[in-house]
Structure formats: structure tokens, C-alpha cells
Design brief:
alpha/beta; Rossmann fold; 2 domains; 9 helices; elongated
Length: 332
């Protein structure tokens, strides 16, 4: 078995850590124990920690500036643990102190996708240096979904699939995140929404410390329902029913005469037919686990009920050819 490389993304958005059910200092104490357990599991294991802050995603560990600085001496603590704890806590304190008191910045969304992208770049650099590591990413999130991040996070998912990187996601508190559910499912990882934040360390040890190869023989708790809804390219809203361009696969919440991505023009008759065939709005219900329509257009199947279809994949035809929207088994 190859050594395990773990990249951890910590969502440290001040807007959501203002009055959380779990204080930030206790959250970091749980995280440090988990990180120490990872590097203690095998001497060859490697670790990288990124922070998702408003507007930036700095690398917390390893810190190149602290490479030549020995950790404070403590005969009661294992030196690698002491070094990891001191670097991560010092870097987090420095990054939080460097935030300006500007309210617009403090309430801005965290750069979660930026941190995820940096983690993938870091893993790619490791793969170029040596191919004898099994990489995975763990995202610890407290922020809700940001609809404008749909396209970047889907690109990150496709990059992770190509690099064979497993993405695990843990929503510490707050609402479920649709995009992180999809990221974990499409890369073979686990998504977990905590019900008891005080048991964070137990969840981390049982669910995310074992590598994916070992989880196959363990009863790992995970999410049994996955929400595969996508965000439209026109208004950046998460939609239950959408229309997909047959040329570039862009998603729209309503039929449009010209695709805003590839500039393809669609016949007027097709647009009229699609508008006339649009179903009435129905309440959104998450679907069970299956391949994401955002990554693979849905195929008609008479056995799939409409309420389980997260995305209406209606193809726009060119050159006068007509087509009808399809929603996982129902034609309109």
C-alpha cells in the first residue's frame, strides 16, 4: 500500500464563525488531533492544510517560512505533533488577524473553491515528483452553497477524477451543500453532515481517517441521499428543472434563443415547443445516489419517476431540427 497524502481544506469564513454551535478554538483542537492521527498512522504519510478565507486561500501547512525554525521544546509532546500544532495555529492566527475590519470583506463568501483548486495543484505537483502516493482531499465546510461557484467546482471535480483524487466533505454545521455532495459522490468519497458538532473528532476518526481502500471493509457513516441539482448559467440559481444546450451542455432555467456560452442559435419552433411543454413547478426533493446529470446528460427511462429527476436535460436542436426536453424518463 502506498503512503497516503491528505489535503485538508478548512472553511474559516468569519461570517459563519460569528456565533456557531461549535466554538472555533474547540473546532481547531479537534482538527489538530485528527491531523496528528494521520501523520502518526504511517511515517511516510504527507499532509497539506489550506484555509478558505474571504477572497483568498492560503497554505497553512507545510509553511515554507517555518522550514528552518525548530518547534518549541516540549519533552511531553512528540516533536512532529508539536511542529504541526504550532505551525497551523500560528498561521491561522496570523491569517485571521490580517483580515481588515471592513464589514463587506468579513461577510464575503469564503474562497472554498480556490482552496480546493490549490489542493489539486499541490497534489499534481506531488504526482510529478513521485507517483507513489494515494492522494485525497477533505473539505471541512461551514458555508452554504454559492450558486456562482457551480462551474468552478464542477471543473475541480473533473480535475480530481482525472488525477484519481478522492474528495471527502464534512459539513460541520449549517445547511447541506449540494455541490460538496456531488463532489464526494463523483470522486468516490464520503459526504457527512454532522448532527452533533461536539462529536466532530469521533466523526473524523471513524469516517475520514481510513483511506478509501480500507473503507471498503468498514461500516463508514455517510450520506445516503445525494442532491444532484445544478446551477443555471444564466442566473446562477440552483434549479430543479433546466434546459441543456446540445452543443456545449450549458444549463439554463428557461429556453433561450441564443446560448450565452457557445453563441449557438436555436430555431424559433423549437423554443415555442419547449416553452409550451414546460411542466408546472414541483417541490424540490433530493434524489438517491446515481450519476450526476450535470456531468452526464440523463437518458430517458420509463421506470424513473419525475420527482427523482433533479435536472431536465432538454436538448436544443440546430438547423431546424426539433427536440423535446427530457427529465429522467418523462417526455413533455
Amino acid at each position: 500500500m502506498h503512503p497516503d497524502h491528505l489535503a485538508v481544506v478548512l472553511d474559516l469564513s468569519p461570517a459563519h464563525w460569528h456565533r456557531p454551535p461549535l466554538p472555533l478554538d474547540r473546532f481547531l483542537a479537534h482538527i489538530l488531533v485528527f491531523l496528528n492521527a494521520h501523520i502518526a498512522a504511517r511515517p511516510e504519510n504527507t499532509l497539506a492544510v489550506f484555509a478558505a478565507l474571504p477572497g483568498r486561500a492560503p497554505l497553512l501547512y507545510p509553511d515554507p517560512d517555518a522550514a528552518d525554525q525548530p518547534p518549541p521544546a516540549d519533552p511531553n509532546v512528540y516533536p512532529p505533533f508539536r511542529r504541526l500544532d504550532s505551525i497551523v495555529t500560528a498561521r491561522i492566527a496570523h491569517e485571521l488577524d490580517s483580515l481588515t475590519p471592513d464589514e463587506s470583506l468579513l461577510t464575503a463568501p469564503s474562497a472554498l473553491v480556490g482552496a480546493l483548486t490549490k489542493a489539486l495543484c499541490y497534489i499534481n505537483r506531488l504526482n510529478l515528483a513521485t507517483s507513489q502516493v494515494d492522494p485525497r482531499i477533505l473539505v471541512l465546510s461551514v458555508s452554504p452553497d454559492l450558486s456562482t461557484a457551480y462551474i468552478p467546482i464542477m471543473n475541480s471535480i473533473f480535475s480530481a477524477q482525472k488525477l484519481k483524487v478522492t474528495i471527502d466533505a464534512c459539513q460541520v454545521f449549517g445547511p447541506d451543500t449540494v455541490f460538496l455532495q456531488q463532489a464526494a459522490h463523483l470522486t468516490g468519497g464520503s459526504y457527512l453532515h454532522l448532527t452533533e458538532t461536539s462529536a466532530l473528532l469521533q466523526y473524523l476518526i471513524m469516517s475520514f481517517l481510513p483511506p478509501p481502500a480500507i473503507r471498503k471493509v468498514l461500516a463508514v457513516p455517510t450520506q445516503d441521499r445525494i442532491d444532484f441539482r445544478a446551477a443555471c448559467f444564466c442566473h446562477k440559481n440552483i434549479v430543479d428543472i433546466g434546459f441543456v444546450c446540445s452543443v456545449c451542455l450549458s444549463i439554463f432555467c428557461q429556453p433561450v434563443p441564443v446560448c450565452s456560452t457557445c453563441r449557438t442559435k436555436f430555431p424559433i419552433k423549437t423554443l415555442q415547443r419547449l416553452n409550451a411543454s414546460r411542466p408546472l413547478a414541483t417541490p424540490a426533493t433530493p434524489s438517491s445516489a446515481r450519476p450526476s446529470p450535470a456531468a452526464t446528460p440523463a437518458q430517458p427511462s420509463a421506470e424513473t419517476p419525475r420527482h427523482r429527476a433533479p435536472l431536465l436535460t432538454g436538448e436544443f436542436a440546430q438547423n431546424g431540427a426539433s427536440s423535446q426536453p427530457v427529465t429522467n424518463g418523462s417526455k413533455y
